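Lines hold sequence, tokenised fold; shown next:
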Amino acid sequence: MLPQEILAQVRRLEIVTGRLVAESFAGDYLSVFKGRGMEFAEVREYAPGDDPRDIDRNVSARVGKPFVRRYVEERELTVVIAVDLSGSQDFGAGQRLKREAAVEAGAILAFAALQNNDKVGLALFTEDVERFLPPRKGRRHALAVVREILAYEPKRRGTSLQDSLERLARMLKRRCILIVVSDFRDAGFDRALKLCALKHDVVPILIEDPRESSLPDVPAVVEVVDPESGARGALDLRAQAPALAREEAERRRALSKTFRAAGLEPVVVPTDRPTIEPLVAFFRRRAKRRGR
């Protein structure tokens, strides 16, 4: 795309996703994530119901009666959006490509962070992390994050979630909200995902296209190309569709097991539905659990 086309798309995403965030997402985002720590607020006299562990012994000894220390949660968060730009993200059998859905998800989350005055950073990866924008605040930086997801041309086509996640775990020194946007069409990244989940609050955004799990059952032989390796072949839809469907179902079961083992709940974003819907549903479920 030409630079002016990219800028126009960024502006359109800001208008559309900014409105969606304001109308249906910002409150859920705010209520889900804990702040980075507790900040001292005041010392006040002990009242029935206060936790005895909060009693400030030095102040209590000086005044001759119990006083407790009160804290408030620091709301400022650091959000890092890691987006998979490998070749498989350029697939889409319906209205949009998986990469387009990933751009929308990234934009929604960047503008949600902006609205809550949080820092937002970006990591773009394929076989490794290719581009990293350190977390910062402000509208200008949020727009830069969206522009990079839209415009960046990856140097490689393959996927290595293991290498990319391990590198992110080394790069991100402080705990943050790590949002991984990918189709997760890779294997052997279980350990790296668990490591990130131990250090950070990880939210997997799973981008899916319906055609990946359900090929048309028609008498036709079509040429297919692997978007990552470039390998070509022929596919007999009627003869091979059932076996491919079983293989895809097994892959999804294994992926669900990987997420469960890391203690994570993925947000599934299909390419044939508005991106905001599964994001809102996920954050509302999580907000309810946190409330309980």
